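Need tokens for this chain, all 215 residues.
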Amino acid sequence: MSEDSYKHMGMRNQLVRKLRQKGVNDENVLKAIGNVPRHFFFDKAFESHAYQDKAFPIGEGQTISQPFTVAVQTHLLSVKPGDKILEIGTGSGYQCCVLLELGARVYTIEYKKALYERAKQFLPSFGYKAHFFHGDGTLGMPTHAPYDKIIVTAGAPAIPETLLSQLNPGGIMVIPVGNADQQKMLRVVKKEDNTIEQQDYGLFRFVPLLGKEGW
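Here are the structure tokens for all 215 residues:
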């Protein structure tokens, strides 16, 4: 693993400035992004790409999400310290680290075995501890339910009912829903009486959500 130098910290500060310019103004989220060494997720040869505001391939047909997208999803979750969060799609583990920086307890599930194995070994090696699972994220993780928040980091054809059932009353789910080309970022709130309220936060583009209630 490469070191986290002053140069890297400077690049992260620059990324945070760029996110501010793009309208991200949640200081807690910006601080979390400013703390996570994103270059750790890149091969040395591609390190120059680590603090650009773009997605990047990580193998297995998946990507490490664009920092702006991570910032938007994290902001919409309204993370509070101690929140029990289910993350659908561990991927590189970068989004998981941002949630952990905010003091959440994260249960993260990955469909691709190779990515699950990698994240499970890799994140604890530089101090990030979550509960890692391999399986079909569209079915959630019923054994540890209910959750205060659920974040889905892949594009779904619809909101999986199974995930809604694992959300606490008063809980929030952030999920991109649409077709293979683009998805609407939805913030879904489960009210105390179990009715659902949702808001649309614009178009994004994610890899497809795989599994029984996905694609």
